[in-house]
Structures are given as C-alpha cells and as structure tokens.
Amino acid sequence: MKTLNKTALSVAIAFAGITAVSSAQAFDSVTWVWDATVNSTVDTAALSDINVTPAGLTQTENDQVGFGAMTSTSLVTAVDNLIIPIISGNAIDDLGSIESAATSVGNNASIESDVSMQTDNSQLYAGVGLSVDPLITTALVPGSILATSSVLGATNLTVDSTATGVGNNLSLDLTTTSDQDAFAIANNEQLSVALVTSTSTVDAVLFSGINGMAGTTVPSVSSAATSVGNNLSVKVDGNF
Q1: What's the rounded Cα separation, in Å, for the pair 17 and 11?
Q2: Using one digit for the tens of pLDDT, what is the confidence trace for 190-217?
Q3: Do 169 and 231 form a contact (C-beta atoms < 8 A)?
Q4: Rounded-to-integer distance, Cα 50 and Cα 181, Å
Q5: Mind listing the pLDDT tens digit for each residue in 37-91?
Q6: Residue 88: how many CA atoms within 13 Å on its side-chain side?
Q7: 235, 231, 233: which is closest to 166 by C-alpha?
Q8: Going by C-beta distance under 8 Å and a sequence separation of 6 or more, which residues neighbour residue 100?
Q9: From 100's CA, which of 53, 108, 134, 187 has a CA 20 to 30 Å away?
Q10: Do the beta carbons of residue 161 and residue 151 sit within 8 Å?
Q11: Which residues contact 77 (CB under 8 A, 6 or more apart)?
Q12: Residues 98, 109, 148, 224, Cα dihedral to 10°
C-alpha cells in the first residue's frame, strides 16, 4: 500500500512540474489507466511482560460433558383478559401480559470474580458417546437441543415469547477494584455435536377497545427464537 501511495505522489509531482512549465496548455479530458499487482507479507511479533501483585486469585478447572436430548416447551393457549368496555374506551394500563419462555442448554458455566482469574474450560455436548474399543477415539452421535415457546389465542394481553437453545455456554465476568487484579487468563474448548432448534410462535392475538395502542413504543407482541452451538462471553472491568 505504501508503494502505491509513493507512486501516486510521484505522478502527481510530475504532472505538477509539467503544468508549471506549460501553464498555457489546457486539458479537455483526462484518461487514467492503472493496472497493479501487489503481493504483501505482514509479520507481527509482540512481547508482553506483566509484573503485578494480585490481592487474590480465582482459579477454576471446569470440565462438562452432556449427553442426551435437551427439550423445553412452554405453551400458553386461549387466554382472554375480560375488560368491561366503557364509552370512552379503555387505556393501555388495562391490558394484561403474557410471558412465555423456553430455554434448553447442554452445558453452562458462569464464573464471577473481583480478583484475578485463571480458568481452564472444557465443554462437550452430544447425543451419546460410543466407544467400541478403549484404544479407539469415542464416536459422538449427534444430540438434540429443542426449545419451543408458543402463545396461541390471547385477547387484550401483551405477549412476550422467547425460545432459546444453547449447546455450550461459558461466561466469565471479572470486576475488580485494583489494577493489580485486572487481568484474566483463560483456556476455552467447546464442542457441540447436535441439532439445535428454537421455535417461538405467537398466533391469534386480539386487542379490542384499547386507546393509545398506536402511540406506545413498547411492542405489544414480542417473539424471539435463538439457537447457539457454542458461546463464550468474557468481561473484564477494572473499577479503580
């Protein structure tokens, strides 16, 4: 990229020189054709030396193995919030609410600390592990993670439906009060051999005689489905 910039700069200087010598000439049109082939190699080496005196240490070795089928189902059917109609109409505050949530997780770990953290994590999820011979690597049969949330038939009720399926999940949260503790060292291995399915269904939701529905910023119906094979979340926050 630097070679191109220098070349362009040289060309610009050359044109400037020509213009200075022949200032009486004018160009009706300019045609620029540039064919370039660039091969780049980037080699980066970094050395970091940290010398700290932590006040404490959270050291964790987490090994999780999950086999089988994980299934969660939330079903809400035919809920009617009976509102007595009045002449001027009813307000949004008269609405009821439905929350339907289904969550299926194969392996989950959550580690929180206010001092320095060192973690070695291994998570495996599959349907089953088959070993024909101890000398042969265990064969993994795909597993199943199913989360289903359904809300069918609701009258004058806000609806929040959520379905979440996760194979492996690790969350590390380090919030310290000292700069000497504000570091985390982690080794993470996650393997999911599975079909992860999440379904959120909302159907036949009716609002009748409610004033102010168009002016609100809060969704009347929320439906969300999330499927994750492997998930890692690391948060380091030094409050000092």
Answers
A1: 10
A2: 999 999 999 999 999 988 878 777 666 6
A3: yes
A4: 12
A5: 878 888 889 887 888 899 999 999 999 999 999 999 999 999 998 877 666 567 7
A6: 3
A7: 231
A8: 74, 75, 76, 149, 150, 151, 159, 160, 161, 162
A9: 108
A10: yes
A11: 150, 151, 152, 153
A12: 60
Cα–Cα distance between 110 and 112 in angstroms, integer? 7
User: Buried b vs exposed e over 162-181: b needs ≥16 C-beta within 10 Å?
Assistant: bbbbbbbbbebbbebebebb
**Rounded distance between C-alpha atoms, residue 192 and residue 143, angstroms:** 9
The residue written with tokens 């199943």 in the block is: 144
Structure tokens at 65: 């193995």
Burial of 47 (0-12, 13-18, 19+ CB in 10 A): exposed
CA dihedral 183, 108, 66, 71 (to 10 degrees): -160
Residue 103: closest CA among 144, 74, 66:
74
In one-letter notation, the amino acid at residue 189 is E
Q: How far apart are CA 228 and CA 217, in angstroms?
A: 29
Q: Report pTM.
A: 0.74
Say how far apart CA 148 and CA 67 lie, in whole Å: 20
Structure tokens at 127: 């349907």
